């Protein structure tokens, strides 16, 4: 029940943040496109995180976490798969200038096979399906978790490489690295909320997550700056264009998130490592941070669909 409430709250935060992104960029994007992209990205991030989090534990505890997270991984992959299918239908409707009610399977198939964006969408669908099959049918081992993680990462990267900076080799790679670093950071924390249930496991997992998050933050900052330089021509564009306004909002949210993460590293991490932080406190701290992460993910999705 608690996980379901957290997921519902997260979805509402994503929709609200998508509305903000649409308002900042309107009429250069659509609310439906922003929202469905944000929901698909959020599901993909959680899916990737569920493949990463067992690697943060040690020894036999890692094997236990692989087994206990398999059901959540299967559910997350199924949600991601459904969201990707819906997203592909919405993008097809927008490309063909058709209402959703008039989009048929043939339209979706043509768009999927004949456009770069459509082929990237098909790849993401295949990746989500592969992760789901691994979660349901493969042995629940660390090797299977790594295979699922590789599939999820490939599915996430596929859309970024077909986005705004697809014509810029360096820009496209920068956006892909930025997206994957952010996904690992946000997804691993979400997965911890879903799978780490007691104080002892938080004490083992949180320090390793903190080390991982430092690497992720460094990569996403460096790659994010490179991508922004490639996408925005001038400082004025950060406020005079829809793309720039959404980018500015995303940078502001990211700055707030990093300040909060640093404060948690200074206070929460030592308490958790010493078993002084209860599981409830760790979960609450995580959920607050995740709410801000959800806003950043939704704004990134709005940025991706802003023309």
UniProtKB/TrEMBL annotation:
Per UniProt, subcellular location reads as: Cell membrane
Q: Which UniProt keywords apply?
A: Cell membrane, Membrane, Transmembrane, Transmembrane helix
- Which InterPro entries does the protein's record reference? CopC/D, Cu-R_CopD_dom
Q: Which GO terms describe its biological process?
A: copper ion transport
Q: Where are the transmembrane segments?
A: 35-58, 70-97, 117-136, 143-162, 174-197, 209-231, 243-263, 284-305
Principal localization? Answer: membrane
Pfam families recorded: CopD
Domain Copper resistance protein D, residue spans: 203-303
This protein's membrane topology, according to the annotation, is:
Multi-pass membrane protein
GO CC terms for this protein?
plasma membrane
For this entry, the protein name equals CopD family protein
């Amino acid at each position: 029940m608690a996980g379901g409430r957290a997921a519902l709250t997260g979805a509402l935060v994503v929709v609200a943040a998508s509305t903000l992104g649409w308002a900042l960029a309107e009429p250069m994007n659509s609310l439906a496109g922003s929202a469905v992209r944000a929901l698909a990205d959020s599901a993909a991030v959680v899916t990737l995180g569920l493949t990463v989090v067992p690697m943060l534990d040690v020894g036999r505890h890692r094997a236990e976490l692989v087994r206990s997270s398999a059901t959540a991984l299967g559910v997350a992959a199924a949600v991601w798969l459904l969201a990707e299918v819906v997203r592909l239908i919405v993008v097809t409707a927008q490309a063909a200038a058709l209402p959703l009610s008039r989009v048929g399977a043939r339209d979706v198939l043509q768009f999927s096979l004949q456009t770069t964006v459509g082929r990237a969408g098909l790849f993401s669908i295949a990746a989500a399906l592969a992760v789901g099959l691994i979660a349901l049918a493969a042995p629940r081992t660390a090797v299977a978790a790594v295979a699922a993680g590789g599939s999820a990462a490939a599915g996430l990267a596929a859309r970024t490489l077909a986005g705004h900076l697809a014509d810029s080799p360096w820009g496209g790679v920068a956006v892909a690295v930025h997206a994957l670093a952010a996904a690992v950071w946000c997804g691993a924390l979400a997965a911890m909320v879903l799978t780490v249930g007691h104080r002892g496991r938080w004490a083992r997992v949180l320090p390793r997550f903190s080390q991982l998050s430092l690497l992720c933050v460094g990569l996403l900052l460096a790659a994010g700056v490179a991508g922004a330089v490639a996408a925005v021509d001038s400082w004025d564009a950060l406020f005079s264009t829809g793309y720039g306004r959404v980018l500015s909002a995303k940078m502001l949210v990211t700055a707030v998130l990093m300040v909060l993460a640093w404060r948690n590293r200074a206070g929460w991490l030592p308490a958790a490592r010493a078993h002084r932080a209860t599981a409830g406190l760790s979960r609450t701290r995580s959920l607050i941070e995740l709410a801000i992460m959800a806003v950043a993910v939704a704004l990134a999705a709005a940025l991706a669909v802003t023309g």
